Amino acid sequence: MGRPAVKKLENSQASAAAVFLILFLPLSLFPSEREAEARGKSPARVFSLSIRDAPRAPATPAPSAASTPAPPGPPAPEKPTFGTLSRDFLRDAGQIWSYPAHIRTGDILPLAGLAAVTGFLIAEDEVIYGAFRDYRDEHAWVGDVSPVITTMGSYGAWGTVGVFLCVGLMARDDKAVETAALATSAMLQSGLVVQAMKLLSGRQRPSWDSGVDHWAGPAGIFKRFEPGLYERYDSFPSGHTVTAFSLATVLAMQYRDTVWVPVLSYTVATGVGLSRLTEDKHWLSDVLVGGVIGHVIGRLVVRNHRSRHHLTPTVGVAHGKLTFAVIFSSQQ
To answer: What's the pLDDT tens digit per position in 201-221?
Structure first.
């Protein structure tokens, strides 16, 4: 086997390994939502790479027929307002940005694993990027599909949120409206984190210098203002991937009982991440870290919301009649 053939085989193997990592590593770092609920042992609600369970609503004892009057009808669910959304946003932001001050023992292994895989990918990014570029050049359909898929990490993602909001308002579907609000929060929170990381890392995009990797560090902040260099040192991590995985995670958690929703959501998000390589915008390590950040923050926003605003169903017998009630509580 000649040298070109060997090199092509190595590039193909690197691409296959890269796809496997981006597909499975972000999800493998966290237990499934159902597994987390089944354990229900930790009362802490902390932004963490090792997901912890949110506190559950206290169980309400069934009313006694002899001493307890019939419970009132279920109170009207609290509608989200600008005030409540802003308060929740600030609380989530406080947990996210203060995370380095409260890293726990359970976080060490996931962080170490992520750091190790990211370091490996950074070392191989130029080879992997070359393999993706060659594959795109050899398959015309990639060049046709990639620009479309990549928009789901920007305009497409925000358009999806807008659809949920409009449909929810018109159909009076509170869950759809809630999903739109949570997705907006998750996308904004993760976007702020990513922009800070971009400024500090100053990594050069692969579209510059024919795919040569270079890190300018914080100095890249000032180089951004040089003519024609605004996006040159703006690679690590991938903002489109962060947005796509933030949205996908919220949708998957909100509609987890509909099997195709999580599958479709994460498939599209993964496609967005891979498209950032075929579009010459990012390295694979950028995509991996972006996917993890989007996934973690999306879970944090949804789980915090559920712990702050929850419905507790109750059932009992009063005055010889079977009664039901739903108690709505909100953590202030």
So the answer is: 999 999 998 899 999 999 888
